[in-house]
Write a structure and sequence with these properties.
The chain is built from 3 helices and 8 strands, in the order βββαββαβαββ. The chain is of the alpha/beta class.
């Protein structure tokens, strides 16, 4: 699985003019299931992200995790993280999981984040979403399982 993790002061998802999810301080997690990905990989990625020490401590150092701060996570599926730009000018997405597998693993990942003790909001798989966020720092981290 691939994830783009952003520390945010707030984030939201709107679908068809309706705000379906929003969080305050926490993490915006764009997630993509790749061909061959498994639940075990989603488990490891969720545990790693929940404990990723990228929030400031009292000394201003990045030394606290999402679990330490009590922040929330907004998890949004984004198959374009599988983009292959090595040839031509049009990205290819053939390495992304098939839609049914992608949706299953996306929902599983969000549930695993919840199981870690994180307050989770989600986007809508396959929908045309408007994602708004204020990146805090900015802190943006690319992760793969």
């Amino acid at each position: 699985m691939r994830a783009l993790v952003q520390r945010v002061s707030r984030a939201s998802v709107t679908v068809a003019e309706e705000k379906i999810a929003q969080i305050g301080p926490g993490l915006m997690i764009l997630i993509c299931a790749m061909q061959g990905d498994t639940e075990a990989q989603a488990d490891r990625l969720a545990a790693k992200i929940a404990r990723l020490r990228i929030f400031r401590d009292d000394g201003g150092r990045m030394n606290r995790s999402l679990l330490d701060t009590g922040g929330a996570a907004l998890v949004v599926s984004q198959f374009t993280l599988a983009a292959d730009t090595s040839r031509g000018n049009r990205p290819g997405f053939s390495t992304a999981a098939a839609p049914a597998d992608g949706e299953r693993l996306y929902e599983y990942f969000a549930a695993q984040m919840t199981a870690q003790g994180v307050d989770v909001q989600t986007g809508r798989f396959g929908a045309d979403m408007a994602v708004a966020l204020v990146n805090d720092g900015p802190v943006t981290i690319w992760m793969e399982s």
